[in-house]
Design goal:
Structural class: mainly beta
Strand order of the largest sheet: 3-14-5-10-11-12-7-8
Radius of gyration: 20 Å
Strand content: over 45%
Length: 193
Amino acid sequence: RLAIGDEGKVLTVSDADLPAWETAGGGKLELLDTHTASGTESTYTFTPASSLNLKTDYQQIIVEFGGRMTASLALQFVVNGDTSGYVTIKTFNDSGTLSGSLLTGQTSHQLADTTIIDAGIQASGYIVLQLLEDTDGTDGTAIRSFCNASDEGCQWTGSRQNTSTSPVTSVQLKTSTSTWTANFYVNTYGVKL
């Protein structure tokens, strides 16, 4: 008979083809942070206890979000508190009309435009950060995102943050104006190397 295992142990089969308890080995996806708004908010920042290194520890940092907006607003994203150097290419579908633009010298990565987020709209989406290594030694952070605003449209955005390099010390989701409501959630994951 095999005794009951301890906390943090999983049942495996040993080299001798016998059941055995072993310490659980983690998968590649690691939940780093979770946040649910208890009231209206206009910003949420996750600052990990130790920096998230995109060269040695993580392939990607993924942030997912969702909830209801109180008014028309743009959703924005900032890496490492840096409010300069974002170059963004966005494509969005506003109630069936497809358009796009290139934005240089931006203060943040734009997740969704005021065109598709109206008062009372529910929006959800994700952001993916990964290292963008350049041959001249000037690494940056590649950012891509998708945001869906119910009944209005959706936006796909790709960006390069030229001045923020690995490691990632903070990620911030914010609004251009106004707020999101209680129960808006932000979850941050790391995909390990």
